[in-house]
Amino acid sequence: MVKVVGVRFRKAGKVYYFDPDGLDIKAGTNVIVETARGTEFSQVVQEEKEVTEEEIVSPLKKVVRVANADDIRQAEENAAREREAMRLCESRIAEHKLDMKLVDVEYTFDNNKILFYFTADGRVDFRELVKDLAALFKTRIELRQIGVRDEAKMTGGIGICGRVLCCNSFISEFQPVSIKMAKEQGLSLNPAKISGICGRLMCCLKYEQEAYEDLISRVPRTGAEVSTKDGPGTVVEVVLLKRLVKVRLSRGNDTDLKIYEADEIRLIKDIDRKDDRESEAELEELKKLED
């Protein structure tokens, strides 16, 4: 086991492990660490704990020091420089008539490099822009193209639920989200209702998927033939969260419907899973919402 502290470099960013090097560092403390990009200013979000060798990236780098007043002032000055760099870069993009959208700017703590994050529909030839920016800022320049989900994470906003975007407030890494999840949770397949402001499927579809998968494994699907205390029948509706099943009994009466708890019925014959594949084919257009 290895003793580490977890730090973040950006709000809701990925957590990276560093060796505390004997320092007693509390969560919320700003620290200076050495990374592949050079010296960086970060914040401890996980206090000292032990993890396995498999959970760390070797070699494990040490925390250089707890940030002092000069370090904090340097970080604040960098934030002001980033805002100015954003303005200047946007004007240069317009001058070069490039089809790209600048999303964010990041100075490394030691001002050794400036990173410009942008989105674009395709490839962009920004070589002349890089030369222009390097002459303007007199330091190393890196332009990094990001996806629409990363853009939403960086810029933030309010979701259709009325809360701050999950990706901007606490999600450190994106998880795969699929149309299948929306279907299994019984949600409307209207893109406007299941998409976030990034235009991709909402990350929150992932939160309850495990619970839905467990329920689905315990409840017969619509169309299945089942046995009930009142005789055999066919499932016409399933209320997953309540584990209730509406069954049309096989008595020759189309209106003879009864509701049972899932534990009260027994599966006789499931529906052909080919039906699922055919319905999935009809949703091919919706799959564009997935990453």
What's the arrangement of secondary structure elements?
Blueprint lengths: L1 E7 L7 E3 L11 E6 L2 E14 L11 E4 L2 H27 L5 E7 L5 E7 L7 H11 L2 E6 L2 H8 L10 H4 L9 H6 L6 H4 L14 H10 L6 E4 L2 E9 L4 E6 L7 E5 L4 E4 L4 H9 L9
Parallel strand pairs: 7-8
Antiparallel strand pairs: 1-2, 1-4, 3-4, 3-5, 6-7, 9-10, 9-13, 10-11, 11-12
What share of residues is helical?
25-40%
Gyration radius (Cα, Å) is: 27 Å
Shape, principal axes of CA atoms = elongated
Number of helical segments with 4 or more residues: 8
First-last Cα distance: 36 Å
Strand content: 25-35%
Q: What string, H for helix and E for strand, traces the elements in order?
A: EEEEEHEEHEHHHHHEEEEEH
Main pleated sheet: 5 strands, antiparallel
Helix/sheet category:
alpha+beta
Average of per-residue pLDDT values: 90
Q: Uncertain segments of ≥5 residues (pLDDT<50)?
A: none
Strand order of the largest sheet: 2-1-4-3-5
Give the beta-strand count: 13
Written account of the structure:
This protein has 8 helices and 13 strands. With 291 residues, it is α+β, with helices and mostly antiparallel strands. A 5-stranded antiparallel β-sheet has the order 2-1-4-3-5. It has a 5-stranded antiparallel β-sheet with strand order 12-11-10-9-13, with no helix packed on it. The protein starts with a strand and ends in a 9-residue tail after the last helix. The mean pLDDT is 90.
Which key terms come to mind for this protein?
elongated, 291 residues, 8 helices
Task: Please sum up the structure shown.
With 291 residues, the protein is an alpha+beta fold. The chain is 27% helix and 28% strand.
